């Protein structure tokens, strides 16, 4: 069976634009949360989120001009802009911008989103109600469609291999990386650009998740304390936005061109809960089965897992995932470290699995587990080390990243040191 | 039948009173005839400026490239969706409606200025 490795990384997160800029802040336990600036929040219950910080590009700010010309940017929703920015970083990091047709035919793109162009759907609908359908831009549909990151990236670099996009709510990023790796294993491509992007911090997005009783509502005075997985005082997730994209490559292909190899995609597991549209099954069986399947494909034992990047959204579901992890690891639970980086980035929905895969890969590279911040008063007792409020330097050869989405869709990806 | 007088609003619309409006039209018409050429030129140049601004903004091109015969697609880098959006922007800016079949005849900057000048 062909092996798949990671050779490039790209990030746009609420902590920073850029992989190293984000990673440094993450290890320092910095929160990306703050008051929402994107729209007038006076009508919604939650007025805070983890927004991407726009600026001139210095100090980790996101400068849209660095990634797309203004005239092109006008035609796409922000989730596409973030996706393109992360993809651009990843292909440059991998040094993979081939000019020859043969290489381009063997390179594909699979970047998804949980919701897609919600901001433009909201804005265009409001505009249409006022001015009528003749004013709807011809770029509205191609600027809001979820698969248009994959489309845009393929056009930008001439990548003519498989062009696909995953839509599995908060599991999107993990499914994209796992499925893209399978395409390489199966021989459909030698290189895949894979990941997820999201930009749903708009009035209808916040209102919708508020109505679903999913968002934190109580910490308007201290938003940076709102995302607190496993803590007794947690009251819902904090919405984030951004994108994570990786370059996946067939191992021999990467070796032959002397590419820098971060880690191997060792295992990938998927499962469905068949339980409830928004809540995970209470026994955590869906998550357990996706982790178990990933371990099986990797040919690893539970005791081999050093670090787990948890789904851990800062909701009641945290403890359900924890139960599933304890069940999987059994007697080895005391040897593993598990943290929720959503305590810092917030929940990036369709991008979450992708940015967290990248954090898991960097954990292997730097042999350090990022912390779970705001874990002051644990709601749980567990043999697992939850990296409370402080990064943990330790041996990390194998890292597992979990993502669970609305609809009961679960994905687990395992990365291994090469 | 009750006689309401010559200026009575019978069906809601304000009555049109020839006696008052005619002289006004006459004065306006006279002025216009006197400087018809200037007036047309002024309209054209005002339209051209506003059209040029829209083209520069939407297509991200240098103002100097937006010349009379510059084709949106061949010379200014637009694709078919860009031209649809341009026409919509013209409609919005000038408060006019450009039917689809007419929109197809607007290929160059000059076409746009001519069409809009005639329509407004």
What does this structure look like?
The complex is a heterodimer of chains A (418) and B (120). Chain A is of the alpha/beta class. In chain A, 33% of the residues lie in helices and 18% in strands. In chain A, the strands form three sheets. Chain A has a ten-stranded mixed β-sheet with strand order 5-4-6-7-1-8-14-13-9-10, with helices on both faces. Chain A is globular and about 65 Å long. The model of chain A has no long low-confidence stretch (mean pLDDT 98). Chain B has 120 residues and is mainly alpha-helical. In chain B, α2 crosses α5. At the A-B interface, loops of A face α3 of B.
Name the descriptors.
heterodimer; A: alpha/beta; ten-stranded mixed β-sheet; two-stranded antiparallel sheet; B: 120 residues; mainly alpha; 0% strand
Proportion in β-strands of chain B: under 5%
- Kindly, what is the distance between the CA atoms of the first and last residues of chain A, rounded to a whole number of angstroms? 16 Å
Q: What overall form of chain B do the CA principal axes indicate?
A: globular
Number of strands of chain B: 0
Radius of gyration over C-alpha positions of chain B, nearest whole angstrom = 21 Å
- The counted number of beta strands of chain A is 14
Strand content of chain A: 15-25%
Total helix count of chain A? 14
Structural class of chain B: mainly alpha
Q: Give the number of helices of chain B.
A: 5
Organism (chain A): Rhodalgimonas zhirmunskyi
Catalytic activity (chain A): (9Z)-hexadecenoyl-[ACP] + malonyl-[ACP] + H(+) = 3-oxo-(11Z)-octadecenoyl-[ACP] + holo-[ACP] + CO2; a fatty acyl-[ACP] + malonyl-[ACP] + H(+) = a 3-oxoacyl-[ACP] + holo-[ACP] + CO2
Keywords (chain A): Acyltransferase, Fatty acid biosynthesis, Fatty acid metabolism, Lipid biosynthesis, Lipid metabolism, Transferase
Pathway (chain A): Lipid metabolism; fatty acid biosynthesis
């Amino acid at each position: 069976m062909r092996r798949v490795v990671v050779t490039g990384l790209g990030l746009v997160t609420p902590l920073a634009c850029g992989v190293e800029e984000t990673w440094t802040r993450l290890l320092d336990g910095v929160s990306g949360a703050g008051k929402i600036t994107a729209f007038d929040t006076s009508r919604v219950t939650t007025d805070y989120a983890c927004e991407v910080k726009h600026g001139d590009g210095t100090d980790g700010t996101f400068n849209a001009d660095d990634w797309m010309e203004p005239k092109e940017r006008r035609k796409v929703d922000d989730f596409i802009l973030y996706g393109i920015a992360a993809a651009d970083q990843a292909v440059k990091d991998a040094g993979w911008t081939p000019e020859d047709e043969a290489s381009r035919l063997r390179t594909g793109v699979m970047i998804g989103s949980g919701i897609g162009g919600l901001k433009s759907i909201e804005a265009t609908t409001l505009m249409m109600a006022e001015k009528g359908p003749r004013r709807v831009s011809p770029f509205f549909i191609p600027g809001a469609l979820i698969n248009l990151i994959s489309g845009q990236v393929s056009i930008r670099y001439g990548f003519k291999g498989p062009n696909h996009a995953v839509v599995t709510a908060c599991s999107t990023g993990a499914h994209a990386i796992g499925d893209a790796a399978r395409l390489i294993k199966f021989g459909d491509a030698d290189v895949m650009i894979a990941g997820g992007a999201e930009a749903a911090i708009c009035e209808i997005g916040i209102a919708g998740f508020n109505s679903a009783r999913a968002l934190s509502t109580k910490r308007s005075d201290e938003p940076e304390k709102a995302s607190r997985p496993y803590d007794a005082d947690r009251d819902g997730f904090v919405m984030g936005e951004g994108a994570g994209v990786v370059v996946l490559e067939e191992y021999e292909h990467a070796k032959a061109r002397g590419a820098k190899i971060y880690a191997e995609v060792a295992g990938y597991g998927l499962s469905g809960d068949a339980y409830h549209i928004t809540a995970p099954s209470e026994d955590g069986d869906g998550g357990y089965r996706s982790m178990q399947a990933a371990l099986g494909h990797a040919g690893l034992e539970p005791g081999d897992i050093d670090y787990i990047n948890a789904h851990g959204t800062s909701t009641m579901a945290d403890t359900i995932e924890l139960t599933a992890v304890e069940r999987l690891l059994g007697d080895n639970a005391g040897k593993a470290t598990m943290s929720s980086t959503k305590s810092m980035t917030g929940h990036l929905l369709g991008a979450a699995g992708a940015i967290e895969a990248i954090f898991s890969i960097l954990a292997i590279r730097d042999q350090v587990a990022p912390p779970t911040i705001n874990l002051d008063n644990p709601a749980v007792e567990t043999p697992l080390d939850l990296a409370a409020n402080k990064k943990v330097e330790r041996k990390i050869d194998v890292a597992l990243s979990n993502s669970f989405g609305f609809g009961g869709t679960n994905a687990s990806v395992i990365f291994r040191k090469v | 039948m009750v006689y309401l007088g010559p200026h009575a609003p019978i069906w809601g619309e304000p009555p049109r009173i020839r006696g008052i409006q005619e002289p006004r039209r006459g004065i306006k018409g006279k002025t216009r005839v006197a400087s018809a050429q200037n007036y047309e030129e002024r309209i054209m140049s005002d339209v051209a400026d506003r059209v040029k601004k829209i083209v520069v903004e939407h297509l991200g091109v240098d103002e100097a490239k937006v010349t009379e015969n510059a084709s949106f697609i061949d010379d200014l880098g637009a694709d078919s969706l860009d031209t649809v959006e341009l026409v919509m922007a013209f409609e919005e800016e000038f408060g006019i409606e450009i039917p689809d079949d007419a929109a197809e005849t607007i290929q160059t900057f000059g076409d746009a200025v001519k069409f809009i000048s005639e329509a407004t």
